Predict the 3D structure of the following.
Amino acid sequence: MLPRFLDRRLWRLLSVMATLGLSGCTSHEFTFEADLPGDFQLTGDAQYSGASCGGSAGRTVVHRLFETPGHSERPHRVSFQVPLSTHEGGCTRELSRIRIQLDGDSADLAGSLRAPDQAFATLEFHDRLADSARRMPDRGVRIFDGRCRWLQPVPGDLLMKQRTLQCQASDLMGSWLEGPPGGSLQRNELPGRIVRLAIGMAPDVPATAAGE
């Protein structure tokens, strides 16, 4: 029979090993967070590709990964766990892209091919990024900043009869950058980490200022 102090140490070691074992089961995923302005809704569709088995080689599958239940009156943060791979039909596919739809209005505009209250952000996933690319920090959260604004119709413009949502990448100072919010990530840097999309609002402008 083990001395009492060794018995306690053994149980402590077994508890640590069990915890590590359980955490290993979920290590092939990361946490996606989004900071959203008030009245915004979000959905995310993930593409998994790169399978090399049977007749499914190269086929991309798309899954709806997350969707907020509705619009919030106040700015809010949402959080979801994102698998870095999927196993279907005996094939393993790697996460290659997440298309994030930002829905900026609670009005029901279903049926429109390009709803004026919607814009998109994109996250791309790669085996390896260029040496010059920004990487995941050693610790903490990888943040992609973006800004949205409403483009207001100009009197007399027959093509634009209602306000339109515009969202673009931005820097820490809130300056507009080219392209939609989001960016590229390296898959092997992501297990257990947090990636955040931080969306802020800018003042409304006339539609004629969209390129400014």
The chain has one domain: 29-209.
